[in-house]
Each structure stands twice: as structure tokens, then as C-alpha cells.
């Protein structure tokens, strides 16, 4: 990592919220993710992070979300030590350094070119690690990747920004290119997509969410090789509820809300296999 501070243009500031949430957790007494790589990156970026409008509870929800996807990633790599990881919409996430995959893993971080340029300034090279600067829905980037191993597709915080037809087309291509694998991502319900978009408009943020998933089995119809293996209601995960329940009353309210299917389905962590 460079020792001098990295300066950002206004356009690149949107990548910082998730990184900052993990960095805040890294210095907390009861850390969730313990992402020292995120903390180091924040220390090397010339930006007033205290002025950043982090979503309420983001220092809890963001590292918890990342930790769950890290767990799924480690489990997959334990079963498939010689495999390929496609980390889509990677942003400034440091998953490859947290996971530290073995020498037989080919890892690809995929995001827009300007994001990859910033990553190059913040994070070191390592064996088996590749960066691809492209839109994930411009499927030409897949032409450069061998399809001879099992693949894990990790798309944290991405699919709600994609158009449904584009996301489904990408997954169809991946399931055709690789012999077998898994796809893991967080899916928002249509109601959650509307809610987050409206709140962003009120806050003056440029957030456009478009893909809501009310029934995870619908994706099986669009991508015939996929089958749903696991669906986890993120908002009712015990550790999340415990950490967000700052009082007896808020704990009770979380318990009440957690029994409502509408609430449970707002945000789900989904794992598919093919």
C-alpha cells in the first residue's frame, strides 16, 4: 500500500460508506468483522470520513453482512480448494485479504475501471488475484476467464442496482461457462427497493435501486440451472438483533417485527447452486 494519502474526486466518494462502516468496526471494542485492511485503507484516503452520511447502524449492519458472505466464501473454498471466485461489484471491499485464499484459487475482483484504479492505489498485488475493470453486465469480461473449475459468485450489495433482465442474463452465462458452482448475494424485496430509493431521494443521495426479489424461486425460472439452497432473513439474524437492540423496548420491537413475513423478507441473503 502506498504511504502517501490517496485523494478522491467527488464521483468516487460514493464508494466510501461500506468501507468506512467496516473500518469503524475494526476499531470497536467488540468487533464483528475485524477488518484491519479496511481500517488501513481509510487511514490512507484523504477524506473527512466523519462528514460521511453513513446509514443508521451501518457500523453494525455492514460488517455483519460482510461477515456472513465471508463465511459462505470460506465454506465454498474449503469444499473446492481449486476454484474460481468472481467478486462482482467489489467496490473497495477487502474480501480477498480477509479470506486469504489458497494458491489454487483464481480470484477476480470486477467493478468499473475507476474503482479498480483506486483499488490499485490502496491494496497490494498477490498471487492468483486479478482485477477486471468493466460493468458486470457487459459480459465480454467473462471471455478472459477460464471456465475449467467450480466457481463462486459473490455479489454483495450489487443485485438491487441491476436490471432484472441483465442480472439474469449474466447468471445464465456464468452457469453455462463453469461446470458447477454457487451464487451468493443479498436480495431486496420490491418494497425494500422502493423504501431505500425514497429515503435516498430525501437525503439527496444518488441511489437508484431497480431489482426487487419477492420470491427467490423466481430466479430459478430465469436461470434454469440454478437451485435455491439457502435463504437467510438478514434483519432477524440473532447477532444483528442483539447489537441493534439498545434497550428493552427496542429488543421487544425487533422481536415483534421479526415475526412478520413482510419484515423478514425485506432483505435476504440468498445462496444458489448449480
TrEMBL record:
Give the InterPro entries listed for this entry.
Ppm1/Ppm2/Tcmp, SAM-dependent_MTases_sf, TcmP-like
* Molecular function as annotated in GO: methyltransferase activity
> Which terms are listed as keywords in the entry?
Methyltransferase, Transferase
Q: What class does this enzyme belong to in the EC scheme? A: transferase
Q: Which domain of life is it from?
A: Bacteria
Q: Which GO terms describe its biological process?
A: methylation
Q: Reply yes or no: does the keyword Plastid apply.
A: no
Keyword Disulfide bond listed? The answer is: no
- Its Enzyme Commission number(s) read 2.1.1.-
Q: What is this protein called?
A: Class I SAM-dependent methyltransferase
Q: Which species does this protein come from?
A: Polyangium sorediatum
